[in-house]
Amino acid sequence: MENIRNFCIIAHIDHGKSTLADRLLQLTNTVSAREAQEQVLDDMDLERERGITIKSHAIQMDYRQDGKDYILNLIDTPGHVDFSYEVSRSIAACEGALLIVDATQGIQAQTISNLYLAIGHDLEIIPVLNKIDMPSAMPEDVKDQIVELLGCRREDILEASGKTGQGVEEILRKIVEVIPAPKGDPNAPLQALIFDSVFNSYRGIVAYFKIMNGTLNTGEFVKFTNTEKEYYAEEIGVLKLQQLPKKSLSAGDVGYIISGIKASKEVKVGDTITHVKNPCLTAIDGFEEVKPMVFAGVYPIDPEDYEELRYSMEKLQLNDASLTYEPESSVALGFGFRCGFLGLLHMEIIQERLDREFDMAVITTVPNVSYKVVTNKGETVDVHNPAGLPDIKYIGHIEEPYITAQIITKSEYFGSIMNLCLDKRGVLLKQHYLTSERVEMTFEMPLAEIVFDFYDKLKSISKGYASFDYFQSDYKQAKLVKLDILLNNEPVDALSTLIHAENAYDFGKKMCEKLKELIPRQQFDIAIQAAIGAKIISRQTVKAVRKDVTAKCYGGDITRKRKLLEKQKKGKKRMKQVGNVEVPQTAFLAVLKLD
What we know:
The chain is of the alpha+beta class. The protein has five domains: 4-178, Rossmann fold (3-Layer(aba) Sandwich), CATH 3.40.50.300; 191-275, Translation factors (Elongation Factor Tu (Ef-tu), domain 3, Beta Barrel); 294-364, 2-Layer Sandwich (Alpha-Beta Plaits), CATH 3.30.70; 371-478, Alpha-Beta Plaits; 482-592, Elongation factor 4, C-terminal domain (Alpha-Beta Plaits, 2-Layer Sandwich). Helices cover 27% and strands 34% of the residues. It contains 14 helices and 31 strands. The protein has an eight-stranded antiparallel beta sheet. Strands 2-3-1-4-5-6 form a six-stranded mixed beta sheet, sandwiched between helices. Strands 21, 22, 23, 24, 25 and 26 form a six-stranded antiparallel beta sheet that branches. Strand 12 (235-239) and strand 13 form a beta hairpin. Helix 7 packs across helix 8 (344-358) and helix 12 (501-518) runs antiparallel to helix 14. The longest helix has 21 residues, at 558-578.
């Protein structure tokens, strides 16, 4: 056991984690020259196209140092805040972390929040200064930032370049020296923590675990503590580039188990695996419950695909435990699911994955939060989407959820972030300077204001240098109105929103203008209207595509042309009565990006 090292790589987005992981794999000969490619561990096409890591990836490396053989279990984690749940799970399976900081950009928001996650789990931190070969690198300044943040010595900071491979040998040496070997008793009752799972259509669910105590052999009967289900361990093994079966794994090992589990409800990330005959007394503390930031409805384009979509969601949730969903229905879209996401990027990725991995074409509605409606009779009703709002004459008042938000940023962005939060109906509760350069601000603001584009705006204002965390405080009374979008006098309930009365007019106007750009022209005029109750507050018209019916009419009396035009007019009128308007998926997505 003393020759095992479990560690993960944490950093802000785009600081070179996956590239550095590539170099570690090459240096330990885990990946042959034939298999080598950029970002070896990012196995989704989506990850390669966007250049981001979406899933944590575990892999085992063999390394020899000073005549001793070591086993290094590496977990490469995502850097984007929408996938921070993946990071928290990876950290639970490690004893140490490489903290990567880009020498050209310095310490940024996710560096800080991921570091706090790691320190909270008592991980040994190795600071690494990456991209040292870049002409714009500022090694001395960034080292000062790291020393201030970590309180380490300057000489402890390793300099490296994921691109050229410089300093990577030194990182491996440091991992072996600094990161402690896993603690645990191989002879105690089995206690293993599930930190991830994937679905294999031939073999069922594959669970990834780390053994804290005990030993697991192939063919033994095991029990999952949380669900109390019992299984036969058909195959266990370690995670190389492919899965490598083993006869036995013991304390400190990271591996996988295949036991023919078919139902996704039976595997919970954070669950404990133990023996049926000699179970452990206590389960390992799982992970904190995930807090969805954004709620949206996801509906199949063809209503008959509802069951197919449910099946796809179950499989996707195995692979991404931060996705939450429950069934709901809509007048315009039929049956679908109300999903909770960690952010707008997460929502976009889930939609893309449903399309690519399960071939499910879906419509996503406008994201929103849940409200409490107090009726005239004093009853309280929970409303999750605007379509479920009672008639206005029965509503006493509406209460919306408020949050306490903490933002850590550089002091130079203080003013612009302050303006952003005040525009979003925020109230500054307190501010606190952590250092002369960094300030912590605490706001109270409505949750509904942050689900749209708050996070994206915060990132662009602070150049990515603002970390944002929040927790829900309570519900407060608010002056909210339901904004409906009508197409040819028919309401589209998937585009309805509950919005603060002061913002309703501007938002309705922008929605109409955006939809006018996106809805394709038909043979008849399409009226796009925004309405609050019976009052229309904005209107745009998509003009009809007209065929030039008078083209064949040259010369002669004007009545000949008039007759043809009148005939066309009648046809258009009839067409408008029977014609219906399809709203393209881009329109639903564009609404989210309204500035």
